[in-house]
Amino acid sequence: MKLIVLKNDSRSKVVDDHHDSITAENIRSVANNPGKHVTYIVDDELYRENAELFINLENVILSVETYLLQNLQQQENISIFHELNAYEESNRFFTLVRQENPGHKGVFRMKRKLEKPATEKIIEDISFLSLIFGDIQHLVPKRAEDPVTGKMYSMIIIKFAEGVLAQIEYEKTAKSEEALELEWSGRQNVISFSTELQTQYEENMDSNLSYSLSAILTVQYPFNTVLKEQIKNIKELLYG
Questions:
Q1: CA 163 → CA 8, 104, 118, 137, 141, distances in Å?
Q2: pLDDT at residue number 75
Q3: CA 3/CA 78 separation, integer angstroms
Q4: According to the per-residue pLDDT averaged within each range, which of 65-74, 158-167, 188-197, 208-217 is highest?
Q5: Is the dihedral angle over the CA atoms 76, 54, 80, 236 positive or is it negative?
């Protein structure tokens, strides 16, 4: 059995249909049948509330954020994924960035509007960007105010070893207004993605991001000592 833990977010869809969902009503019957060759999905809140039921499952896959929130120790049965690599849209964006500029020279910008821009989410995102752009050479966290809306937001400037300068921003908002913007300016092309523009210009589209199960199963890997050390370093750079 594979158990994929996804964020409890009604605004996120799941593409690919080869899965069953675990609900509070059937959680025990599923957990007690670990030998079934089925991919199940459970939301992170339900997983946290019933983590002891899944302790003996062979393959639990969850996001770095959920791993950190659970305060889990390194376990052989747990693999992790980065959410930016699990969304169909952002996975496609970063695939294009890799193809467009394998030397990674350029400027990257990301803006996330989240209901809960938690520390664990920020650490997860920076960890993923480091996998894409190389080791962090310099990191400067800031708090700033939007001159138009007056809203406060977190901004982090990062210089990566591969020659990339990144600016990432996090703004707290209502769940119905959550959004993601990505932009890459390389030597040859500019690549961009925005859930808000997608909603505005593409017919029959909404601003919901889509989890791709095939992407998750492809990019997931065991939580290892390298990632553990990387997360420790990011925490120190962010908060001292």
A1: 36, 7, 28, 10, 19
A2: 65
A3: 10
A4: 158-167
A5: negative
